[in-house]
Target: Yeast cell wall synthesis Kre9/Knh1-like N-terminal domain-containing protein
Amino acid sequence: MLAVGIVLAAGAIVGVVGAPNPTEPSAASVFNVGKDCTMKWDVDATGTWKAMNVQLMTGDNFNMIHITTVGQNIDATDATKNTYTYTCPDVTPNSAIYFYQFSDASDPKNLLWTTRWTLAGADGQTTPPTESTQPTGEKIPWGKGALVDPSTAVPPPAYLSTNQGNSTASSVVASSGSVSTAVLITTQSPTSAPAAATSPVVTSVMAQTSASTTARAAAASSRSTTSAPSSSANATSAQTTANGAETTVVSGFAMIGAFVAALGLF
Model:
């Protein structure tokens, strides 16, 4: 089962290699309420994310909470328009507990995140995150934020309601560092699964560390070994790593055989 999990994780990452990669904000970013909030990403090389939506999120790594949608129908395939600016909303508390979630209707199972960043008050004042540990025990600060005026909230994209409600997150937003695309890998659950798994994506590939490029579940590499035909004593084996690199290992028998042959004893 562990091997299968590793293989699925590797496959998930390969599946979204060309998707837009959020690069800003980073863990060090601080924006003030009422001022410009900006974000940036690497262009989508797949050419499919032509109507990207961006949500302001909060919560822990496994129970992400939608606050409001801040960007809609953005063409992430246009290299000349890989930034977005909007007015920072009035939230509470003002702390380093906010992050963005990127998605597109063309590929709703693949969600991308930025790391947690700080949304300060209009006067620049902030408070520490209320929580210091994730549900899994990791020392990654977080908290629950909200709009001061909830009536101004823009709902999440319709295509995410079913996706998130029927998914279970197995890995999510990472924690600090500068921008990393948090890669969330989830598996489909029965329709009765709690909608709380707002950290969505089906065996495919956040944030957070720098909600930017940290795919924890895929950090391990899997190796498969294949042996050459058993009819030959000079067997070799090929070890293939998760990233596709292959190395050929020559057995001890093969080396001894070659040495003896060189001495003319064969």
In short: The chain has two domains: 2-218, 224-262. The radius of gyration is 23 Å. The chain has three helices and 16 strands. The longest strand covers residues 64-74.
